[in-house]
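Our preliminary data section would be incomplete without showing what the modeling component actually yields. Below, a chain of 525 amino acids is followed by its predicted structure, encoded as tokens that our downstream tools consume directly.
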Amino acid sequence: MIGHLIHKSKYLQNIFLIFILFGCYNIMGQDFFSKADKFFQTHVHEGMVDYVQIKEEPSLLKELIQSIEDNPYKHFDEKTKKAYLINVYNLFVIEGVLKHYPITSPMEINGFFENEKHLIYGKKYDLNGIENDLLRKNFPDSRLHFVLVCGALGCPPLISEAYHPKHLNNQLDNQTRSAINNPNFIRLNHSENKIEISEIFAWYKSDFLLKSKNLKAYINQYRIFTLPEAFKIDYYSYDWSLNIVRKTAAFVLDPVKEVQTSYLQTYTPSSLLGKGHWEFSIFNNLYTQTRSTQKDGSIVKVPRSNFFTSTLKTIYGISKQKRINVGLLINLKSTTLTSNSLSPLSLKANGVDSRAGISSIAPLIKITPFKSIGNFSIQSSISIPLVSKPESPIFLDKNSYVWSNQLFYDISFAKDQFQIFTELDFNLIFGNKDLGYANNSLNIPASIFLSYFPNQLITFYTMIQHAPSYGLGTSGFNQNYSQFGFGGKYQLTNHMNLEILITDFFRGKDSGIGETYNLGLKYIL
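Predicted structure:
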């Protein structure tokens, strides 16, 4: 009996000891992640490392390196171990660069990846060993290649935080998606019908093909906009320049250009969103006129009238292959018959010379009909009127249903500095011809836009549009107009851009002659 109690006591002691040890391991691990988080937040900016600052204030890096030498990481759970080793690799790269700093590339250091040794809990590893033996071998995950940063610009950028076990899967996904949607990392060469990708995809091809039939399929699962099927894959040379933060100090040799993700060139109306992505946009159009054209094309003066339209659009990607999007358009309109061209912006309605309201909604679907032509798409929508008598006593909107089919196509050239975008619409306007001035007619506007990209954040463009309308059956409706304009877009953030456009209606037949002032804001999530 006594022996049994002694045996049971030792058993309980062992259990207690195990809990104590695991508690210590957990505390040590959490302390490491906390310090690593502080280090990356302090010394990493816009994906670049401030080696100069770390060299001047090395204490935190030294603490982390000592912690790596002492931490019994093999006792961590699998997710913690994986996050831990990713941080360890990135810290050892920074430490290795600092040992030889100033340099302009890690390749200036002989054997930087395969010879220089680093101590991890009593055992020495080179950087290749950490990557291949400790990480890739034990955690077959292609996303590792977007978070292990080799100290060069050719790598995906380093983030300003530690990789943490609680958020690791999201962090891996975010970094992979960010890299693959970055036009500096995946480059579309439209003039040669090529997709130029990093040599990372060649060096570790087997990792990327574990669950994908080819590299294009792997890349497309993370792309917001599908790579053109007809384009061939090519590799651009790896940039081994040091990922050093920009400084004005004389001994920092080659300031680097900050990596930006531009949606201005990649997201045109021709493009579709990937599954789970959203577009939210608002486009405001103010049209004002003091002239009108007759049926014979002659121009006459008319009292000023002003029309404001604010179109809210939401689009959602539902297809992994980025072939189908669905969405909704909501039109808010305001009309005034006054000399003040800005008066519609007040959205006031008195029933005498002003009117305002949400005039219509339009569910829409957008598709890429041909897999091999990713830059050609079709958007179809049905506009449903929401107000009674929208054409009287003051015109607010058409008193009709509108089935709109828009065909989009774009092509880039001159090393992607220029882009031509074309749009052809077929708008069927139907309803009782006695209740709407344009009912039972077909409107076919055709537009061409020429864009110039001086850099990734700005585009300037010019456009021209001709829009004839034809009456169907006995409606007798016949109208056309032409307009041209100049605009620009500015990328406010990686996901948001601002657009400004001014157009002039310079000719027409049985239509107004005026100007439009447009302001748009688009956010992609």
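Residues 1-8, 15-25, 247-261 have pLDDT under 50 and may be disordered. The two ends are 68 Å apart (CA to CA). Preliminary results of this kind motivate Aim 1 of the renewal.
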